[in-house]
Design goal:
CATH class of the largest domain: Alpha Beta
Distance between the termini: 58 Å
Strand content: 25-35%
Number of strands: 31
CATH architecture of the largest domain: 3-Layer(aba) Sandwich
CATH superfamily of the largest domain: P-loop containing nucleotide triphosphate hydrolases
Shape: globular
CATH topology of the largest domain: Rossmann fold
């Protein structure tokens, strides 16, 4: 028996005893073979979880950022025996970026067994993100739930994302269990938070639970509320199999893994299933429950949430919102989801073109696990070949680039973020050239000429701000400065105000959140949702160096902010463009109108230094005149050589 076969034989024996993970690192070359063998072995003993429907509870934890969702999830896992006590903070936050930032980026599911009144219940918990950029994770997670735990910080109270998540759950007619967390804090004021919940959501005080997820105080009452208040799923196990894909990710050994909620029938190994969206059929190779580690099972039943491995090659085949059914038994598709729409776009380029292949592979792998990212190829004469990526928000962009560096060890240049604008084209010939009457663009290079455009449109959002009333004046001034239009102002009690403004997305994606936190000493919270497009007056600002337009430095700005932006950009360029042998004029222009100008002085070389002290005056004047004439010639014919670092400093965030 050869070495490879002996190793595989040994590992196969270990697989039978569940010790595969201890050996997988040592014998990576055999992984694909072993996993294929592992999944094709129909004789292995697998557990069965045929829990009665009335003993199943599917629920999510929703809250604002840093209100303790993952900490509460840890306590629930510990109290059900899924993990050992004090096994580590935020067990469900598996990504390194989540641990570094202390936030949840990816919704995670775990199936828990809990005994209540001598009955064993199967609790399917989904821990969701709290930041607005990842609201789509919350939206699709709620499709598999019958109830939610609405978690509120006893110190901070109701925040903007708390309001958004409440109405998201309320709109789906889910049972809402209000829970006040962190009651052990010195400045905790649960009575104030209860009044806010009553004012905003008409929640009775008797329905509110008070807990400390960190210490475990009152968490047992959360279990009682989950079982007594949340209804079992409304499913039918007598019908043929039908399930909803509400999440997916890519595994390099198993391919695309689909997280499904079964609404009808059951699914077993080796059955043939078909996707309604793609029409492709697959054989079920593996079924798993997450506890929180993947646990192989024989069958998934209606009402349960589990994972399916069926040889899908890419996560694009595991289309989120798709309906699965048995082959040759078509069904009506379940309610799906509209695909997430990218809100913020940025260019990503390698630090050096020799790193292009490594960065491309890293982006492709990361996009397999993050279907919300849009990717298109882009080329810049200054930065080389790169990609234009679309994200759900600025935090999504930051998380993506951090994962590129941490998980794939690649470094990249990120250009300043922008949004997608629209333009209405006039003239039949122009419409024929562009292929449509209305076009979209997010790059200044594709800005259409104003003479062929009747109207420009920019994306708008409805922003919700909750702030202490002492900062009200400053917050309103900030919103008005960002071209916001006030919609409503409401007193929610306890000296706190809730404001709603319609704001241009381009004004809030970069520094709005930081400015709001600075203005309110960190007490204000902000959340936004899409509000369509609105007619606007935008212009393309060009940067000229000695009269030559530098396309890579062009930007799109609102007409009212053009002068301010022009002064800022020319001043920045003045400080980072290296001096030349001749004078350089930096100009910011809209069309033919110059809005701002700065001048870089030429190098001043002391050509008279070689003359001895007290040298002839005429000789000194002659040398200075020759230098002056030479610089004039350089200015007429000289091209400015800008180092790549200059473009990086200007274009990057």
């Amino acid at each position: 028996m050869g070495t490879r076969n002996r190793i595989c034989h040994l590992l196969s024996a270990k697989l039978h005893h569940g010790l595969f993970k201890n050996y997988i690192v040592k014998h990576k070359k055999c992984c694909n073979y072993l996993i294929y063998k592992y999944y094709s072995n129909g004789d292995r003993e697998l557990k069965e979880y045929n829990t009665p429907i009335e003993n199943i509870r599917n629920f999510s934890i929703i809250a604002h950022v840093d209100h303790g969702k993952s900490t509460l999830a840890d306590r629930l896992l510990e109290m059900t025996g899924a993990i050992r006590i004090n096994s580590g903070a935020q067990v469900l936050d598996k990504l390194q970026v989540e641990k570094d930032r202390g936030i949840t980026v990816k919704a995670q599911t775990v199936s828990l067994k809990y005994v209540h009144d001598d009955k064993e219940y199967l609790l399917n918990l989904i821990d969701t993100p709290g930041h607005v950029d990842f609201a789509t994770e919350v939206h699709r997670s709620l499709a598999a739930c019958q109830g939610v735990i609405l978690l509120v910080d006893a110190n901070d109270g109701v925040q903007a994302q708390t309001v958004a998540n409440f109405y998201l759950a309320f709109g789906r007619d889910l049972v809402i269990i209000p829970v006040i967390n962190k009651v052990d804090l010195k400045n905790a004021n649960p009575e104030r938070v209860i009044k806010q919940l009553n004012t905003l959501f008409d929640i009775n005080e008797d329905d509110v639970l008070k807990i400390s997820a960190k210490l475990g105080t009152g968490v047992d009452k959360v279990f009682d509320a989950i079982i007594n208040r949340i209804p079992p799923p409304k499913v039918d196990r007598e019908k043929l199999f039908r399930a909803l894909i509400f999440d997916s990710w890519y595994d390099k050994y198993k391919g695309a893994i689909s997280l499904i909620y079964i609404s009808e029938g059951s699914l077993s190994l080796q059955q043939q299933i078909t996707s309604v969206h793609t029409g492709k059929s697959y054989e079920v190779k593996g079924l798993m429950l997450r506890r929180p580690e993947d646990e192989e099972i024989k069958t998934l039943y209606a009402g349960q949430v589990g994972c399916v491995v069926c040889n899908m090659r890419t996560s694009k085949e595991a289309h989120i919102g798709d309906t699965l059914h048995l082959k040759n038994h078509p069904v009506e598709p379940l309610i799906g989801f509209s695909p997430p729409r990218a809100m913020v776009f940025a260019g990503i380029y390698p630090m050096d073109q020799s790193q292009h292949l490594a960065l491309r592979n890293a982006i492709e792998r990361l996009v397999l696990n993050d279907s919300a990212v849009n990717v298109s190829i882009e080329t810049s004469p200054a930065l080389g070949q790169g990609w234009r990526l679309g994200f759900l928000g600025l935090l999504h962009l930051e998380v993506f680039t951090q994962r590129l560096e941490q998980e794939h060890e690649t470094t990249s240049i990120i250009t300043a973020p922008s949004v997608t604008y629209k333009a209405k084209i006039i003239g039949k010939q122009n419409i024929k050239i562009y292929g449509s009457e209305e076009i979209s663009f997010n790059n200044p290079l594709y800005f259409p000429h104003k003479q062929i455009v009747s109207e420009f449109y920019e994306p708008m959002v409805i922003g919700t701000i909750i702030t202490p009333d002492e900062y009200l004046g400053g917050v309103i001034s900030l919103c008005l400065e960002k071209r916001g239009v006030e919609q409503s102002t409401k007193n929610i009690g306890n000296n706190r105000m809730m404001l709603q403004f319609i704001l241009p997305l381009s004004e809030i994606i970069v520094d709005f959140h930081d400015a709001l936190k600075s203005l309110s000493s960190g007490y204000a919270s902000f959340d936004y949702e899409d509000n369509g497009y609105q007619v606007t007056d935008i212009v393309k600002m060009d940067i000229l160096l000695n009269g030559n337009v530098i396309e890579e430095l062009s930007t799109i700005v609102h007409a009212t902010k053009a002068v301010e932006h022009a002064k800022h950009l020319t001043t920045k360029l003045l400080n980072i463009i290296p001096k030349q042998q001749f004078q350089v004029a930096i100009q910011a222009a809209v069309g033919s109108k110059i809005l701002s100008r700065e001048t870089i002085k030429a190098y001043r070389k002391d050509i008279t230094g070689k003359l001895k002290s007290g040298g002839d005056v005429q000789r000194r004047k002659k040398l200075l005149q020759q230098q002056s004439e030479g610089k004039k010639k350089l200015r007429m014919v000289g091209n400015i050589c800008l180092p790549r670092d200059t473009f990086i400093d200007v274009l990057k965030r």
